[in-house]
Specification:
Blueprint (H helix, E strand, L loop, with lengths): L1 E9 L7 H24 L12 E10 L2 E9 L2 H10 L1 H15 L9 H10 L2 H17 L1 H6 L2 E9 L2 E8 L10 E2 L4 E10 L6 E5 L6 E4 L9 H14 L10 E9 L5 E10 L2
Parallel strand pairs: 9-11
Antiparallel strand pairs: 1-3, 1-4, 2-3, 4-5, 6-10, 7-8, 7-10, 8-9, 10-11
Helix pairs in contact: 1-3, 1-5, 3-4, 3-5
Length: 274
C-alpha cells in the first residue's frame, strides 16, 4: 500500500544547499511516518527505524524550484488493511490536520470518516502533535532558517494533480520557540472548535476576527464534567449562527507566546459561566 507525496523547496534555482536540504527532507519524512504510524497503530512512535512497517521512499526528482517525489509505504498486512479501511483521502486529511495542529494553525474541517479516526485515537492524537514538535518540525525548517526557502508538502494524486497539505517558512519556524507565559489573563471567548477526546480546540476572543488554539494543560480525563459540558455547550450554541449572536464564556488562561509576543495558544485554568 502506497501513498504518494512530493516535497517542494521554493527557490529560483534547481538546487539547494545539500546539508540543509537533506535536513528538511529528513524532517518531512519523520513527520509523515510519525503521523502514519500513530494513525495506523494508535500508538505514537518515539523512534523510527529503517526496518519499520511504515517507511518513506524517495522517488524521481522533478524540476521547478527544487523537489522530490516520495511515497509512504506500508508493508505490514494488518496495517495495509487498516489503511485501506481508512482510505487515502481521509488519511491525507489527517496528515494535514496533525501538521496544522503542531504549528498552532487552524486546520480544515475533517470529513466524517477522518473525524471518526481522530476520535478513535483519543489521547494519542495529542501525543502525535507533541512528538512532531520534538525534532521533525525543527528539521523541516532547516532550509527556511538558513536560506529563507519556503517548503511545501503535497499529496501527489497524479503528475498533473497535487494538493498542498502543509507550508513551512521562517514564520512557521517561530512555533519552535513558543513558551507559556508566567502570568494568567482573563478573557471573554467563544469556543469555535473542540475535540471532545483531547480537550483541545480553537476559541475566538470577543471582538477578534481570528481563532486561537486552546487546551486545558492536563489530560482531558482529568477535566471535570462541568467544564467539559460548559465548553461543549458553548460550541453547540454558537454553531451555525452569525458571530453577532454568539454566547461567550469568561475564562482565566495562561498564554503560550512566541518570542515576538504573538499568542498561539491559551491553556485554560478556570472559567466563569455566570
Amino acid at each position: 500500500m502506497t501513498v504518494n507525496f512530493d516535497l517542494v523547496i521554493d527557490t529560483e534555482e534547481d538546487s539547494v544547499d545539500m546539508k540543509a536540504g537533506l535536513g528538511s527532507m529528513q524532517g518531512v519524512s519523520d513527520a509523515i511516518r510519525c503521523i502514519a504510524e500513530s494513525v495506523l497503530t494508535e500508538s505514537t512512535p518515539k523512534r523510527q527505524s529503517h526496518k519499520g512497517s511504515v517507511r518513506t521512499s524517495l522517488k524521481r526528482s522533478f524540476k521547478g524550484s527544487y523537489g522530490h517525489t516520495f511515497s509512504l509505504d506500508v508493508y505490514d498486512e494488518t496495517l495495509k488493511k487498516k489503511l485501506n479501511g481508512i482510505g487515502r483521502p481521509a488519511f491525507v486529511e489527517l496528515i494535514s490536520y496533525f501538521i496544522s495542529e503542531s504549528l498552532y494553525q487552524e486546520s480544515n474541517t475533517l470529513s466524517p470518516k477522518a473525524q471518526k479516526v481522530l476520535d478513535r485515537l483519543g489521547d494519542t492524537a495529542e501525543d502525535v502533535v507533541k512528538q512532531l514538535r520534538v525534532s521533525a518540525l525543527e528539521n523541516i525548517h532547516e532550509i527556511s532558517m538558513k536560506f529563507n526557502h519556503d517548503i511545501k508538502i503535497r499529496h501527489r494524486q497524479s503528475r498533473d494533480n497535487q494538493t498542498i497539505l502543509a507550508r513551512f517558512d521562517r514564520n512557521t519556524s517561530k512555533v519552535l520557540q513558543a513558551k507559556p507565559s508566567s502570568e494568567k489573563v482573563d478573557l471573554i471567548v467563544s469556543v469555535t472548535r473542540l475535540n471532545i477526546h483531547t480537550g483541545n480546540g480553537r476559541l475566538q476572543l470577543q471582538g477578534a476576527s481570528e481563532t486561537v488554539a486552546f487546551g486545558f494543560g492536563i489530560g482531558y480525563k482529568e477535566v471535570n464534567i462541568r467544564a467539559k459540558k460548559i465548553f461543549s455547550e458553548n460550541l453547540n450554541c454558537n454553531n451555525g449562527i452569525s458571530s453577532d449572536k454568539w454566547q461567550f464564556l469568561k475564562v482565566s488562561a495562561i498564554p503560550v507566546k512566541l518570542r515576538d509576543g504573538k499568542i498561539v495558544k491559551y491553556i485554560v485554568k478556570s472559567f466563569y459561566d455566570d
